[in-house]
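Re-running MBL fold metallo-hydrolase to confirm reproducibility after the cluster update. Everything else is unchanged from the original entry.
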Amino acid sequence: MKTLFYPFVLSILGCFFTSLTNASEVIKLEKNIYAIEEDGFTSLVILSNNGVLITDPANTLRAEKLQKQIKTLTDQPVTKIVLSHEHYDHVGGTEIFSKAKVICHSSCEEVFQLDTRNITPKKVHITFDKKLSFKFGNTTINLHHFGPADGFSSTVIYLPENAIAFSADLYADRYLIPGIWMDNDNYLGILNALKKMQSWQLKHAVNSHATTTSVKALNENTEFVTDLYNLVNTNINNTISTEGVGKAFDSINECSQALKLPKYKHWTNYNTELPAHIRRMALSILHGG
Ligand SMILES: [Zn+2]
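Result of re-run:
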C-alpha cells in the first residue's frame, strides 16, 4: 500500500487537488467495503444488494472513472453519495450517478447556493445537523458533524461495526498541508474530530487524499495537532498573563516564526509551512476560528 499524500495544486479558483499519477487503486477493507483511489481522491465505497454508497465523487472526470471501477465490483447503481464537506474539489461529479441521493451536512446547501462555477450538486436530498445514522445493506453508517474543521460542513463517516472511518482534509501523512489551504480551517475543530476518530480504535482510517488506510497517519497527526495546540496555547497564555490579550494577537506572526516543533522536522513542508500552522492554531485559540 502506498503512503503517498498527493501534493496540493492550485487550480483556477480555490481548492482543487490533482494527483501526480493516473494510476487507480482498489483496496478491499471488508466484504463489500472498499477504498477506491482515482486521480488523487480516495472514496469509501460500500456495496449492498440494493445499491452502492460512495463518498466524494470529486469532479465529473473522476466520477466517471470511479463509476467504471464500481462496475467491475457490482451491477448495482450508486444510490447514495455522502459528501465529506462543502469544498468544491470534493462535491463535483454527483450528476454522473443519476439514481443517487446526495447527503451532506445542513450547512452545505447555503454554500452551494453561492457556487458560481456550476460544480456543486443541483440538489441535496438529505441533510443532517449533528449526527445521522442509517443502515446501508448490512452496514451501519454514522455521519458525524463535530463542528467546523476543514470547512463548515466537515463530516466524518464512521462504520462502527467495521471499525472504519472516512475523513477528508483533516490530516495528511507526515505532510504539513500548505497554509493557503487552511485559511478557513478551525484547528480546534480539527483536533476535536481527530481525537474522536482516534477514540474509536479504528482498523482503517480512510483519508480522502491518501491511498493508505492505516490508522498510523491518524494517530501521528492527532499527536502533532495536540503538540501544536499545547505549544501555541502555552505561549498565548504566557503572553496574556504578562502583556495582555492585545499583545497575544499582535504577536501571532512573530510567534509563528519563533516557535518550533522539532519532533516533526522530518515531515514534508516542516520548514516552509509550520509558521502557517502556528498562525492558524493561534487564531483558532484566540478568535474561535
Ligand atoms: Zn477541503
